[in-house]
Queue: 2 jobs
Job 1
Amino acid sequence: MTTKTDRLIALVDKHSAHNYHPLPVAIARAKGPFVWDVEGKRFFDFLSAYSAINQGHNHPKIVAAAKKQLGKVALTSRAFHNELLGPFLELLCHVTGKERALPMNSGAEAVETAIKAMRLWGYRRKGVAENKAEIIVCAQNFHGRTTTIVGFSSDNDSREGFGPATPGFKMIPYGDAAALERAITQNTVGFLFEPIQGEAGVIIPPEGWLAAVREICSESRVLMCADEIQTGLGRTGMMFACDHEEVVPDLYILGKALSGGLYPVSAVCADDEVLGLFTPGTHGSTFGGSPMACAIGMAALKVILDEKLPQKAAKTGAYLKALLETLEHPLLKDVRGRGLMLALEFKTRVRPLVEDLLKRGLLAKDTHANTIRLAPPLTLTEAQAKEAFAIIKKAVAAFPA
Ligand SMILES: Cc1ncc(COP(=O)(O)O)c(C=O)c1O
């Protein structure tokens, strides 16, 4: 018998580009850490839209802020001022400790904005000769899908077929401070990195690396640019993943949870020395900083602060990680993570395990064939973590060795 799910999946297969390999589930509604599919079945959401739903699905305060704004004014464009842009940016600067913030929509757009900001700083402030600016990036990076960004990806699927690559990027191994030091030249304007590599499989750099990067960048007059789109806003158990080593980068790139999942909201946050260099006409976005985005972004940030979501992620994350560490399976290679950015790495492909978890009521996704990322909303309670773990335990026990 064909189900409603089958029919919906067939429709997408027929009409969409096949640029994703989604799990066979069609979601109809969501609340907190749960989603329900079109057949009415409930699932734990342990992907949280790649960490965009840190506040939980449909957080009542963010929904209320969006509803309040709907029907008032949604979009003005930056051609005019609006009632909410200033207050939103003020709050964002308060959270990041930076002097300025530049709002965009998607994460990739914010990364592009940071690249432009670093190059501009290189030409206007560091004195790099025009068109010579270099940015250093890491192997196995994931910063988004624009042509420039995929051009400096080490992942063949992301890069191949989309060249020619934008020049001006140099790649070094992740977590290697000496390699960074060696790669820097007089033309280096920035170092773009993820404090934990999410898409690469929740790769945590060696202890002390972030602090070493800070020191090297400061000494060499290179901007340290942390892509905290996935790790930021509480996910790893602190507001930013850089906080784990008490490191403050020159630029933060934020997205995803900056809207709690209700609307695409992203931003680059930095001091006047960097973001003060943009002048009218040098950068922009029709929707970036819209009243709707600001209303939602402000509510999303307030929920993170008011509900102490970073602290909650640290506590629930430690609890869940301890449970995961009790798992036994001959092919289980590693249990790792920080806060509620956790992962199970196996010595084999985990897609069958992910599909079994789906059948048992938990949605998670494989990142790079052998690793399952476990990233529930940060509002997950310990009782819910325990219930979810029982599902994971049964699925792992049934996973063929
Ligand atoms: C670290 C990081 N940077 C950038 C992006 C791109 O964000 P978006 O998909 O909103 O363009 C992602 C998305 O997964 C990410 O994890």
Note: Residues 50, 106-108, 111, 142-144, 194, 198-199, 227, 229-230, 255 surround pyridoxal-5'-phosphate (CB under 6 Å).
Job 2
Amino acid sequence: MRKLLDPRSILKLSYFYTTYQYLVGGIRARRLFIENDARINAGEKVLDIGCGPGDILRFLPEVNYTGCDINPKYIKTAREHYPQYDFHATSIEKFKLKDPQTFDVVITTGVIHHLNDNQVKTLFNLAKNALKPEGRLVTFDGCYIANQNPISKKFLDMDRGNFIRNEKEYVFLAKQYFSDVKTKIDETYFHIPYTSLIMECKNNS
Ligand SMILES: C[S@@+](CC[C@H](N)C(=O)[O-])C[C@H]1O[C@@H](n2cnc3c(N)ncnc32)[C@H](O)[C@@H]1O
């Protein structure tokens, strides 16, 4: 029998992805993530891993920005909207850093829960190599918690990402690359009930 097309695959198209994010509050969530958690200053050098169509850029100050994403359609949209920035249509596995240890901040929003453990390790390794010794990686992903609102859990279960983890599992992976991992659970950033984990990862020298 022919396999039915997953209706969520329409989100691989930039217009539908961004419209969906507006509806569920994902755009608001990214604004709050940038304001409260990533706290990026003008002039900083920023790497955005799995940048999608570049929706987060509307909330960043004037920065030296590089984005990469495996989906060429998202990168095409990002380049159209933000021709001044450096975008790479490539996977984290294939992305070659031209300028290691020069980035102030690496962000990755809504990406880790799409990746298996080996891919997450590749992402953390990439972030670690990109960052200056005092730099930081800030991540944002859906997260399972104890006694979760069942609607929040349902949204996580339905997510396109097949690797939604609990806090302990995310931190376990991050700690293999960063000595200092601070976490925050948020349940207010989206319009829908949705639980997110924010990690700020640094290396204490
Ligand atoms: C939920 S979207 C988040 C996009 C964007 N960061 C945002 O906040 O809107 C997850 C992104 O991860 C990207 N992605 C998934 N696997 C990847 C990989 N192996 N390498 C690079 N990007 C990947 C997808 O193409 C998608 O753009």
Note: The chain has a mean pLDDT of 95.
